[in-house]
Structures are given as C-alpha cells and as structure tokens.
Specification:
CATH superfamily of the largest domain: Hypothetical protein, domain 2
Helix content: 40-55%
CATH architecture of the largest domain: Orthogonal Bundle
Number of helices: 13
Oligomer: single chain
Number of strands: 5
Number of domains: 2
Shape: globular
Order of helices and strands: HEEEHHHHHEEHHHHHHH
Largest sheet: 3 strands, antiparallel
Structural class: mainly alpha
Length: 245
DNA sequence: CACCAGGCCGTGC
DNA sequence: GCACGGCATGGT
C-alpha cells in the first residue's frame, strides 16, 4: 500500500480513503478497493483511471536525467502518475482546495458526498452530480464549513455545463472558459485540466511549487520541464512536501 | 498570539 | 497590467 499512497491521497485526488488494509473510493457508481498497483489492472474502469496507456517508464527515464532534484523525486516516488479523474469532481475538489490543506479538503469532499451524494454501498457515498449538488444552498454549505468557498461552489453548480467540450479546445481557450467560474483562477483551472482532462501540458503553480521554483530553478523558464511539464510538476510537488520545503 | 494550507476576489493604482 | 489585504476554517 505504501507505493500507491502518494498517488491516491497525496493531493491530486480526494476520492480515496485509507482503511486498515486498503484504499477505497466510490467512483463510477461502485466502491473500489485497492491494495497495490496490480489491482488497477484487473478492471476496465480502473485501468483507464490509472492511466494505463501512458508510457511512464519512458517519462521517468527522461525526467531523471534533468537534474539532481528531479532524480531524487523520481527515486522517492517511483509509482507517481496522473490519474484520469472526472472533470466535475476535480472542479469542485480544487475549488475546495484553495487556501486549504489536503486533510481538510478531504474532509469537505467527504461531507459533500454524505450530504448530497447517494449511498452506493452501506456507508459509502458517491460524489454528488451537478444535479444532486444543486439541492444545496449557501446556508447549508456554511454549515458544512466550506468557508468563503460557498459562493464559488454555488457558481460552479450553475455553470457546470462549461465542462462539456473543453477537450477539443486549446489550453488557453479551455482555461479562459474555466476562469469564468467565480473562484476558479489560473491554478485551479490548471488542476482541472490536468487531473480532469489529462492535459499533460498543464503546470499548476501552488505555494509548494512556488517555493521549489524560487529555490531550485530561480532563473529557469517552465519550458525547462519539457516534454513532461505536468509530470515534473507533480514530482516536484511531492518532493517539496516530502522535504518540507 | 502568530502563521500556514494544491488561491482567488475586489480594490486601487 | 500588478500589488496587496481580506477571506472561513482548523492545525501547529
């Protein structure tokens, strides 16, 4: 379980809960339970979700060659991947993420599931669809302690249809549309495009990545991380948290 | 008491 | 265009 903990609970997805002997998540109207990487290869949905088709061996080799920090990152997190998540779930997840920490984001994610999702299995709730979440209100969201993000969630529910058709757009155009949702800026849209649309050209810059860039890459352009900007970003994010930068 | 967390908004220049 | 304070909440 140690090798997939960072992928499932390290900040790109908030769907997974660590139990005594497995990680569990309600996705695709089912409860999935996994203990190791191999469990992702036994099911069609999980295979897609785990980004089975991407050549991570090749990417890791190339990223390792870039510099010492990325080499350490690849060696510390050998299994790191970019999961293929649902756009709507990533939209709400990363609205919740702003000025927040991973543990509390997960708590709020679970609260939305329990309150507005449906029970797929005893005590396992799905993430609410836009229609389900539309049953909420500013006041109910306040009670769940989402804080100042309440009005952002309300606006996202109203504009959920923006998510349809982003696949065919350029990065800049897709980003522009996402940013018409109140509470969605450059960083949150980068996370949505990366984790929800598998846009591997995305490069979300959060507080951790800012520290890394300032300290280790002060005079480098983002293009330094080509041809795997998103993966490098993910490695550096995990590494920065690991060494408590 | 302070400062921080996978930031963004509103205001002022 | 850029800088800066404010923002809900919970943890350290």
């Amino acid at each position: 379980m140690d090798d997939i903990r960072e992928i499932l609970t390290g900040g790109q997805s908030f769907s997974w809960s660590e139990e005594e002997d497995c990680f569990s998540a309600v996705l695709n109207e089912k409860v999935y339970r996994v203990q190791s990487e191999s469990d992702f290869y036994s099911d069609d949905f999980l295979r897609m979700y785990y980004d089975f088709d991407f050549d991570y061996d090749r990417a890791r080799c190339e990223i390792r060659e870039k510099d010492e920090l990325l080499k350490q990152a690849v060696d510390n997190f050998p299994k790191l991947r970019i999961l293929r998540q649902d756009p709507w779930i990533t939209l709400i997840s990363f609205i919740l993420s702003q000025n927040n920490n991973i543990k509390r984001i997960k708590g709020l994610y679970d609260a939305l599931c329990r309150n507005y999702g449906h029970e797929v299995e005893k005590n396992y709730y799905s993430f609410p669809t836009p229609k389900e979440l539309a049953r909420t209100s500013i006041n109910e969201l306040k009670e769940l302690k989402v804080g100042f993000r309440d009005r952002y969630i309300m606006d996202a529910i109203e504009k959920a249809d923006i998510l349809n058709g982003l696949e065919s757009l350029s990065y800049d155009e897709a980003e522009k549309r996402l940013m018409t949702i109140t509470g969605v800026g450059k960083k949150v849209s980068a996370c949505i495009l990366l984790f929800g649309y598998h846009r591997m050209d995305a490069f979300p810059i959060d507080v951790w990545i800012k520290k890394v860039l300032n300290q280790y890459y002060p005079n480098k352009d983002i293009s330094y991380f080509n041809p795997y900007p998103a993966l490098c970003q993910q490695y550096l994010f995990s590494m920065a948290r690991f060494i408590k930068l």
